[in-house]
Amino acid sequence: MSTTVSDDNSTNGESQQQQTPVNSSRSSTIHLFAGGLAGTFGAVLTCPLEVIKTRYQSSRNSFSKGPNHLDLSSSMSNTLVHNDRPNAFVVTKRPSIIKAFRYILRYEGIPGLFKGLVPNLVGVAPSRAIYFFAYANTKSLLVESMERETPLVHVLSAATAGIAMSTCTNPLWFVKTRLQLDQGNLRAMDVVRNIYRANGIRGFYKGITASYVGVSETIVHFVIYEQIKAQLQLSQLNQNHSPDDPGFFNFISYLGAAACSKSCASTLCYPHEVIRTRLREEGTKYRTFLQTFKTVLKEESISGLYRGLLTHLIRQIPNTAIMMSTYEIVIALFSAPPPSSSTIEVTTVQTKKVLLNEADSEANASNQSEI
């Protein structure tokens, strides 16, 4: 009888070893799909704010059509320039997001609010997919090697994922920025041809240093997010609720956790966004990360490094909240085993236990009869 049990255990061990690579591959695919879908939703819904934010960050006047135009070239962006009186400056309230929105809608139409959307859609799915894929797998490897999940694991995972994503997708974001700064009818292929003719492949990686520095924002974001998420899951368990249940409460919880963590990270690390936009401008004086940082700080003071922060937060908070909550819900939906297979598996295990118990009883009975 003991031989039979041993055979069953060895068979179960072999089947588990065979299923492990399959489950690991399926998990990676789920993370890849969830990250891409989440990033796409966020990009489409917040594209107009992305355009306005990029123009605020630029050193150029991106609102220069019409008899009266908003001059955003000053550090505080608080002057209204009259074209009929070029030397007259009237100090007014800082141009609001609503005014910028109306300006683009008036002079560039609805397509102007979605400039750069095509490279954004082309890039957001693979970039988020690469990010979440790298983050999840790096985290899994580190937890396996360290035998526990610590803040250092989150930091290293986020840094690795951020660098991998930036390296792979920087050309797409470069083209997107150029399109968003343009007020004409520039096409993505025009940008690609012009950059390649002028600087070759290296031209598409302008601003990559700022993106690497921006990994710090991602690190801060995910460290805070993972801590809040852990507390939420602990609270769910204390209330006898499953933290993986894709219900309304979990959706709202992840939404709040993502928004809170991203707002903190964005505020702390925002200057790299302005520097990256300046580096991607065409024909400007900005050359390197440190040179751009010093130039902006000298000419526009500290406020110049935070131009467009409000727009950035207004865009990033809902974008990140949508992205992270969608990611978590998709993971929960696709990771949960189907009820039928779970029932069959439990029934099979219970049947084996019953059969083994019956066999043991028969063996004991026969032994006693022999005695």
Automatic annotation (TrEMBL):
Transmembrane segments: 30-52
Tagged with keyword Acetylation: no
Name assigned to this protein: Uncharacterized protein
Any one GO biological process: pyrimidine nucleotide import into mitochondrion
Residues in Solcar repeats: 26-141, 149-231, 249-333
Family named by the database record: Belongs to the mitochondrial carrier (TC 2.A.29) family.
Any one Gene Ontology cellular component term annotated for this protein: mitochondrial inner membrane
InterPro entries cross-referenced by the UniProt entry: MCP, MCP_dom_sf, MCP_transmembrane, SLC25A33/36-like
Organism name: Adineta ricciae (Rotifer)
Main location: mitochondrion
Domain of life: Eukaryota
